[in-house]
Amino acid sequence: MEENITDKLEAYLKDLGERYKYYYEVERDKEIYGVKVDIFAKSSTEHFRQVLTKNIKIDKHYTKEYAMVKALSGLGNKNEVKEFSQFLISSINKLSPPSVDTMSTILNGILVSTSGFSEEAIRFGEKFKFSRSFLLGIKGWCDIRLILVDLKGKKLYSNKKGKEVLSAYKIKSKSGLGGDKT
Question: How far is the C-alpha of 94 from the C-alpha of 125, rounded, in Å?
Fold first, then answer.
């Protein structure tokens, strides 16, 4: 049974990486600021306004989105979720320093557990909230989406911001892979 869960974890991570690759630059097994993540994905979109021709730009700004997926081999407890959320908070200024060119940054933190999460961990994850404005919004803002994926119980938990993208992390009932149930 343990091998089956490990296979489900690897299949879920592989499927997630495949879906990310269409919109993000994806790296597997990357160390970021001393923490190993199973998937690191980043995306940057340029927006601009123009006058008369494409060559005359009035202004431009970027929206950036990052996803960090970390797998847990056992039961996820509150301390692990708290440490991961603190890691996400500390990564913001390093990944995307505040700038007048960057409008918004979204950081998706996904913890995937093969054995589920404790009630305390789930409560902490659902109540977690982080939104920061830089220089009254002139240098943009940042939000963190925290998502907990329980492969054993086939359940998803998230904070309020995470609910915006929760359907993208659903577990298929048949194979244990990500994506919407079909």
Answer: 23
User: What number of CA atoms fall less than 13 Å from residue 182's CA on the CB side?
Assistant: 5
**147-158 in b/e burial notation, b at 16+ Cβ within 10 A?**
bbbbbbeeebbb
Half-sphere CA count of 119, side-chain side, radius 13 A:
0
φ, ψ of residue 59 to 5 degrees: the values are -155, 165
Crossing angle for the helix pair 78-95 and 119-127, nearest 10 degrees? 30
The domains of the chain are located at 2-169
Closest CA relative to residue 15, chosen from 39, 42, 37? 39
Dihedral, 9, 11, 12, 13 alpha carbons, nearest 10: 80
User: Tell me, what's the pLDDT at 1?
Assistant: 44
User: How confident is the chain (182 residues) per 10-residue block, as mean pLDDT?
Assistant: 72 88 89 89 73 70 84 87 92 72 80 91 91 65 89 90 87 55 38
At residue 167, the pLDDT reads 86
State the Cα torsion 172-173-177-178 to the nearest 10°.
30
Identity of residue 81: V
Return the pLDDT at 108. 93
Instruction: Name the pTM for this structure.
Output: 0.80
Q: Which amino acid is at 21?
A: K
